[in-house]
């Protein structure tokens, strides 16, 4: 019986860690927020009421997208806080692109800095 399990499944000698890596925790928190925004975008496209969306349009019809960690807007490049989009489909595409960058760890440095600032406001140290 044990041999059948070993052949049917890919078994590895790994045990779940008791503590989650803080970098992984921040990534997961941001990924969860990105997925919420993707769902809100779909509701918005259907004409349903949406709250706390990260995208907006100006009087010229251009659409902009912030990426937030908690309530803090992330600085994606020096002095740049928003992504310019032409359509709502561009918003969806850019949210997907940001999601892939998070998986690759491209935003880890920014998340670490923002997390440190947030914790400092509460009097905690990293």
Outline the structure in words.
- The chain is mainly alpha-helical.
- The protein has one domain.
- Helix content is 49%, strand content 12%.
- It has 4 helices and 5 strands; from the N terminus they run ααβββββαα.
- The chain has helices at 2-8, 22-45, 88-104, 108-121, and strands at 55-57, 63-66, 68-69, 72-73, 82-85.
- A 3-stranded antiparallel beta sheet has the order 1-2-5, covered by helices on one side. Strands 3-4 form a two-stranded antiparallel sheet.
- A hairpin with a 2-residue loop joins strand 3 (68-69) and strand 4.
- The chain is extended.
Annotation keywords:
single chain, 126 residues, mainly alpha, three-stranded antiparallel β-sheet, two-stranded antiparallel ribbon, 12% strand, extended
Q: What is the strand and helix layout of this fold?
A:
Blueprint: H1 2-8, H2 22-45, E1 55-57, E2 63-66, E3 68-69, E4 72-73, E5 82-85, H3 88-104, H4 108-121
Antiparallel strand pairs: 1-2, 2-5, 3-4
Helix pairs in contact: 2-3
């Amino acid at each position: 019986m044990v041999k059948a399990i070993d052949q049917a499944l890919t078994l590895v000698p790994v045990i779940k860690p008791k503590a989650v890596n803080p970098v992984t925790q921040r990534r997961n928190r941001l990924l969860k927020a990105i997925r919420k925004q993707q769902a809100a975008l779909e509701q918005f496209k259907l004409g349903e009421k949406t709250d706390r969306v990260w995208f907006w349009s100006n009087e010229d019809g251009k659409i902009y997208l912030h990426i937030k960690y908690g309530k803090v807007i992330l600085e994606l490049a020096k002095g740049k806080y928003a992504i310019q989009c032409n359509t709502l489909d561009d918003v969806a595409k850019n949210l997907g692109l940001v999601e892939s960058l998070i998986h690759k760890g491209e935003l880890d440095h920014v998340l670490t800095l923002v997390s440190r600032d947030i914790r400092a406001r509460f009097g905690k140290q990293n």
